[in-house]
């Protein structure tokens, strides 16, 4: 065989592979490397995807337009793998957390012509170790981050420009691997945060956010109290990978009957019924819980 023709054949194969990769990335939501996370906006207008990365170039988040399924943005901020992302309740902000110990917040704007613009508005080194999880307050611009450093921090975004630390929960016994925040009723300031850990256990924390308009006194910007520790026999035997609250029924205005789903590295999915029994004393922070696992 002519060596020249062999080199031409190899070059054709390379060009073919390059074209296949381009077609897949632009038309099939396919990404180079293993996919690590995916999140869709509440209005299902766009979604974000990321993959395993060892450099800033690969650690970008791809933003896709739902319907046309075209890539409309490549968000760059992190230097290592993005481990989780989540849109805010109004889809105006996208929060990402990464193995580089930082979180980033992007402002996402739709032009009304199926085009989406984005801008990095905040980036902060939030923890001492890898960030595994994040979750927005479903009624505000507060969010939680969880890390391998065994801590959970609550942050607040002001004027869509600055981010301040509001509260840090007491240290946990092991790495925090999953978070999910749900609001309680029409109270924008009160919510439950589910915390999943590397040892498979799950805790529920009651959060109260003191809004700026309410800060006439020297009250802390946020407070937290342990709501419930789920029975270890109901939890996972390995790391909790994801947590998700079911959106309450409209008829359940007090959010007294909740459901929490979890999945773990033990290849199990669990669903818990959580009943909240509010204490009439105080500002709703003191509550009792009844938790059972669905069979």
From TrEMBL:
GO terms for biological process: tRNA wobble uridine modification. Keywords: Cytoplasm, Nucleus, Repeat, tRNA processing, WD repeat. It is found in: Cytoplasm; Nucleus. Transmembrane segments: none annotated. Gene3D superfamilies: YVTN repeat-like/Quinoprotein amine dehydrogenase. The keyword Mitochondrion does not apply. GO terms for cellular component: cytoplasm; elongator holoenzyme complex; nucleus. Its main location: cytoplasm. WD repeats lie at residues 124-165. SUPFAM superfamilies: WD40 repeat-like. Pathway: tRNA modification; 5-methoxycarbonylmethyl-2-thiouridine-tRNA biosynthesis. Belongs to the WD repeat ELP2 family. This is Elongator complex protein 2. It comes from Morus notabilis. The lineage of its organism: Eukaryota, Viridiplantae, Streptophyta, Embryophyta, Tracheophyta.
